[in-house]
Amino acid sequence: LGLKVDAVWTFGKPRLGNLEFVTAYMQSAANQGAAPPLWRVVHYHDPVPRMPPSVPGLYEVGHESLEVYYTDRESTQYEVCPQDGPRANKSCSTSYPLVLCINQDHVLYLNQTFKHTLLPATCTAETSNDAVLV
């Protein structure tokens, strides 16, 4: 495809593509010297990085490497989880079932909230008299 792939950091990223897409992305990054091609930061039991669910043989989706998994809600401990190919390391974030991850962990990364009701007034459109176009 001729696309430039540089090292990338993501926070709470969902699975973006099938296994072939992930393999092609990682190969393109490797060819361009980006190692690792992507750092995926996952906060504790954040459900978003576990979605959409991967169903082997029917609908398999993958993640780019390398996962940095915060193993507690307070973000005091983490593991760096390498993976082999497009499938996530089963000893890190995917070791905890998606069905048990319905919580607010997606809006808290590195002890900083992204929950709009907890942001300072200067960060929300609710304090402005100006119209906000979406």
Q: How would you explain this protein's 3D organization?
A:
Helices cover 10% and strands 19% of the residues. The protein is built from 1 helix and 8 strands; from the N terminus they run E-E-H-E-E-E-E-E-E. The strands form 3 sheets. The protein has a 4-stranded mixed beta sheet with strand order 1-3-5-6, with no helix packed on it. Strands 2-4 form a two-stranded antiparallel sheet. A hairpin with a 7-residue loop joins strand 5 and strand 6 (78-81). It is globular. The two termini are 32 Å apart. The relative contact order is 0.17.
Helix amount, in percent? under 10%
Overall shape: it is globular
Strand share of the residues?
15-25%
Oligomer state equals single chain
What strand line-up does the widest sheet have? 1-3-5-6
DSSP summary, beta strand count: 8
Number of H- or I-type helical stretches: 1
Low-pLDDT parts are: none
Task: Please tell me the overall pLDDT.
Answer: 80
Provide the succession of SSEs. Answer: EEHEEEEEE
Topology:
Layout: E1 8-11, E2 17-18, H1 19-31, E3 38-43, E4 61-62, E5 67-70, E6 78-81, E7 108-109, E8 112-113
Parallel strand pairs: 1-3, 3-5
Antiparallel strand pairs: 2-4, 5-6, 7-8
